[in-house]
Amino acid sequence: LVRCCRVAGEQALDAHAYEEALEHFWRALTSREREVVDAEMAGVLFGLGHAQAATLEQHRRREALSSLVRAFDYYAEVGDVPRAVAVAEYPLTLGLGDPGMAQLIERALALVPPDSLEAGRLMCRYGLSLYLETGDYEAAQESLGRALAIGRHERDAVLELSALADAAHVDWDASRSQESIDKNLRAIELARSLNDPGAEASAHAFAAVALMSIGDLKGSWTHT
Questions:
Q1: Pseudo-torsion of CA 70, 75, 76, 80, nearest 10°?
Q2: Running DSSP on this structure, what letter comes out for residue 84?
Q3: What is the pTM of this model?
Q4: How far, in Å, CA of 188 to CA of 166, rounded?
């Protein structure tokens, strides 16, 4: 039952049918909720966290975090670093004053070499999560800067783009409009070279609002 529900849930996630996925993973979890977490249940918890994050209201996001933490705890305990890192990289965002995801990413960072691509991806996620949860601009940009440096050193343009986009997001939210504009312009160029229209559209959107905030309506309209 657990295996079939897990497979059905993962197929539903792939199809973006998040409500259906939630039902499958929840059925699998409740059938064995009093048992010790094993590899099968860790996979269920990871999938459940995805489905919860996609369907629950903002004030219930900690339920998704709880599922992800339980999955991470199992993978970390058995030494399955790739899966532990995959859990920590999941883009779950909590609100200001609601820490949790940043702490999970910190634990994952302790499992990987400090200058590795895995560390770079985790530091990218950590920077944005830390800012959104604590408002610590300097610490967030330090982490994102390290992620950007790793991406450039390893010639990983995808990581470089992610770090630029998240750093621009933090700049915009912190009312540092010009810094956000500069990073978004670089992100647009990089997204075009990677043929990533989603990332390019997002960078244009942040550039537009940042330009509007400094009174450059013509420039804002161009990006809009």
A1: -170
A2: H
A3: 0.88
A4: 13
